[in-house]
Amino acid sequence: MTERVMTMPGADASPARPGEVVLSIRNLSKQYGKRLAVDNLSLDVKRGEIFGFLGPNGAGKTTTIRMVLGLIAPTGGSVDILGKDITFYRSEILPRVGALVETPALYLYLSGRDNLRAVGSALGGVPRSRIDDVLELVGLQNRQKDRVRTYSLGMKQRLGVAIALLQDPDVLVLDEPANGLDPAGIVEMRDLMHQLSAAGKTVFISSHLLPEVQQICTKVAIINLGKLVTESTVEELTSAHGEFSVTLERAQEALALVQAQNWGREARLSAQGALITPAPGNRGRELNLFLVQAGYAPDTISQATQDLEEVFLRLTNGGTGGVQ
User: Fold this and answer.
1) How far is residue 244's CA from residue 286's CA, in Å, rounded to a whole number?
2) Domain locations in the chain?
3) What does each C-alpha distance from 301 to 236, 246, 276, 313 come to in angstroms?
4) For residue 48, what are the contacts with CB-CB under 8 A and spacing of at least 6?
5) For the chain, the helix, strand and coil percentages under 3-state DSSP, each to the nearest 5
6) More confident call, 322 vs 200
7) Residues ≥6 apart with Cβ < 8 Å to 253
């Protein structure tokens, strides 16, 4: 069962400002015996970002999230949220942080609304209007009176997100929030994340649904074996620098011709059959002219991009993890 982060209201941490760093992880480490689950990790997450935190199973993601929330103590390093160290100012910080860690802990015999009321009561009281708001935000207003035991896994995840939103937090830390959602639910969750970001809230999200991360997140960090592999914008990670994607007939023949050129040795076909290739002089117009003159007139030429999943697998040696 997941730890539910609940602290009484009354935080006096100063309000976040646009563009400021609201989550700062510095040289964070966690060791269990001889196993180093998180190894000297440093990250900065800014206000309004939807920040993807990615890694293979066992790479140290959940361990990091638990340290971020003050649920477990680090072996070394520090975590600052909204400018204050979580170790020393947990009671001030957590009322401004909403969290969903793994599977939400819910009262199955209560309705969705009553679950929110129970949590709200433990938090010191939440207005009925706020419960109405979060039920609408996560799309559970039509099932709010049904007992949670009748909910699907995806509905339980939505209720967990609703709990995380109860106190209208500045920072959301979500571990696999789309777990169990159907395609329509995933789209709704995506829209919700964008709404929250547009409202100035910061979303730190761990997910294994990489195509969805690519659509949602502005920036991502990838860890493997507890170490940071890369931290970059999604755009930078998925851009294939200097390469073009060409759709054309007889792509296999065109590939052989391009690979025979000094500038085209790295050319290849994508899974969809497009020709992915550098261009002579790094110019798309020169590539178009070359193909036309060779008898392979392109249907389209555009800057090539990579799927985040491809990048992830390459950077993590096929997605193999280590310690839990």
Assistant:
1) 11
2) 21-236, 249-298
3) 20, 5, 10, 26
4) 18, 19, 197, 200, 201, 202
5) 35, 25, 35
6) 200
7) 296
pTM (predicted TM-score): 0.79
Which strands form 239-247's sheet, in the order they lie side by side?
Answer: 268-269, 275-278, 239-247, 300-305
Render pLDDT for 69-126 as a digit per residue (tens, 0 to 9). Answer: 999 999 999 999 999 999 999 999 999 999 988 777 899 999 999 999 999 998 888 8
Residue 22 neighbours by CB under 8 Å, 6+ apart: 16, 45, 46, 47, 81, 82, 83, 170, 171, 202
Query: For residue 191, what is the enclosing H or E element?
Result: helix 183-198
Q: At what angle do helices 153-165 and 128-137 cross, to 10 degrees?
A: 140
3-class SS of residue 262: helix
- Contact status, residue 29 vs residue 40, Cβ threshold 8 Å: yes
Nearest to 292 by CA among 252, 240, 243, 246: 246
21-236 has CATH 3.40.50.720 classification: no
**279 — phi, psi (to 5°)?**
-125, 150
Residue-wise pLDDT for 291-322, tens only, equals 999 999 999 999 888 788 888 888 888 755 54
pLDDT tens digits for 241-272? 778 999 999 999 999 999 999 999 989 998 88
- What count of other Cβ atoms lies within 10 Å of the Cβ of residue 231? 17
* Bridge partners, residue 214, by sequence: none
Q: What digits encode the pLDDT tens for the residues 156-173?
A: 988 999 999 999 999 999
How far from chain centre, in Å, is Cα 108?
Answer: 28
